[in-house]
Amino acid sequence: MLSIEAAQAEFAPRTIYLNTATLGLPPARSLAALQAVLTDWRNGTENPLDHDEPIARARRAYAELVNVRPSDVALGSQVSTYVALVAQWLPLGGEVLVATGEFTSLTFPFFAAGHRVREVPLEHLADEVRPATKLIAVSAVQSADGRVADLAALRATGVPILLDTTQAVGWLPIDATQYAFTVAGGYKWLLTPRGTTFFTVRPECDLTPLNANWYAGADPWDSIYGSPLRLASDARRLDLSPAWHAWIAAAESLDLLRSIGPEPLHTHALTLANRFRHLTGLATPNLPSAIVSATADDAVPHLLAKSNITAATRAARLRLSFHLSTTEPDVTKAAQTLRGHLHD
User: Domain Aminotransferase class V spans what residues (predicted)?
Assistant: First the structure.
């Protein structure tokens, strides 16, 4: 196992970076791998066959992080692509239950497919399940403000769940075997380039591979031309043709996170986020989050710029996120800068 301290040597941000919920920073090994393949591309020495190994490694590392078999993981480029597959699979007539203010890549495909979608407050999601509810589609962690869903209560309803883990896997331990479907954009907490997405599906959920392509073949390099249809028998049948360079970098980031493990990453992120809350007088939620959301006064934009702190504004609130690249001195400086200017 790799320690948090050793892994932090891979990062060298020039700001106090508290914005992983928008865009994760690449570790040095990912940047080096990406630069190497870009050099090969420019020199005319790149061989696409060489990319199969890092793509397979990325699949294995992600599977380990979420406790599934690699054969249960599909690789793509956008969350909404996989949500749309679920929306097509789910029969019309029932109800899809979602949280009010949910990220639209998780909800728009259901609206577009003609499903009846009911929005309720996140905290009441499990209580609002009705006989007509055929699917719960929810983010494990809300993008806008970092609220964590009560996943145990949702599982206890017995309703199939499509869980968006984009703001979760990488800091919040997730067991994907407990959900019918999970989907994660990798470019935040998984520290991969944009254009890398992971989808898990239980074998009994027989999704139609509407985006069938050569890379979803049982043997991709023997599936490039001609009929018949010959897709993989497992979740790889839902793969999308990979953006090679993004996946080469992704494999290195995922190897780094895998070598640390979900529990140490969880402990590190929550320790820093809760310390920031304590130092600034913000309340700690019942379900603690690595994302801190607070109302900020008018002085905050200037203070952030003056102290070289990178954060985000979402839903008219300041959003700060604490991950592997964040250090205790970062938290101390940010809290000193913002104390007295934030409230719940």
Answer: 119-275
